Amino acid sequence: MATIYDVAERARVSTATVSAVLNGTTYVSPELTKRVRAAVKALDYTVNELARSVKISATRTVGMLIPDIASPFYARVVRGVEDVLRREGYSLLLGNTYNDVAEQSRCLSVFRAKQADGLLLFVAPGEAEDVRRLVATKKPVVFVGREPRGFKADTVVSDNAQGTSLAIKRLIRRGHRRIGLVTGHLSLSTGADRVTGWRRTLRKHRLPADDRYVAVGKWTVESGQAAAAQLLALDPPPTAIFAGNFLMMVGVLRAIRARGLTSPQDVEVMSSDDSEWLDVFEPRISTVEQPSYALGTESAELLLKRIRRPQRRFERIVLAPSLRERD
Length: 327
What we know:
Helix content is about 45%, strand content about 15%. By secondary structure, the chain is of the alpha/beta class.
């Protein structure tokens, strides 16, 4: 394996010049830069990032935890994060928690062992003392999509209460009076905020906000199906259901079909996530489009600010969702 000394010898320059070219730390003439880059290519030289991280106390890596990459929503968030980090010369370490606090702790241990410079977290439901400790010890951490409870930290979230309100208003305009909500863990801000938006909007339109029409899942297809089955068994059942994410929306449609019903004729369905797949999907599903890519870019930018200025004040960024109608 080639070393920096081999590159310097081949390019007929000092190791300091090679380092300056590769790290962009000082000016090097175009002629010498060309010779160094030619030597790097010829020798297939790769910078030893581990050795460099020991010298500068930084690995230029960021750890990120998401619930499930199978969801199109999280895939778009990750894309936004990667676009910012790549531009700034950082690499991304990605882990799936599947909304399990024990898996979250395991992944955090891995990131600490890898000496990641900062962390982006879709925090899992449940008590997580190790997450609270990271913030208390001033580690660079940004909470994405889900707000921490009981302490302040850098946070980038979507306004889920407002997004749910957009959906419920649309369903009311279309004549629905019994509107069910399938949401995720109520211990998370994403689940609780959707219930708040659902209840507030129904009451504003002088419609009953019967808690029987709220069913809680785990953000998965299977849990969405079980939650929808619970709603459809009510007497009377809802005529419309708003699902808290794309995967649970699929489960809701499965439950409707399992009861021999059709959508939207018997039960209209809306989702809190959008996907380009829905443009060719039957039935036509209107959605609340989450600013997923912007969640990623804003979170990455905020984390880099924290890495560069560890003592800065905590910042909370709230992004607005929008209604995507398909009729």
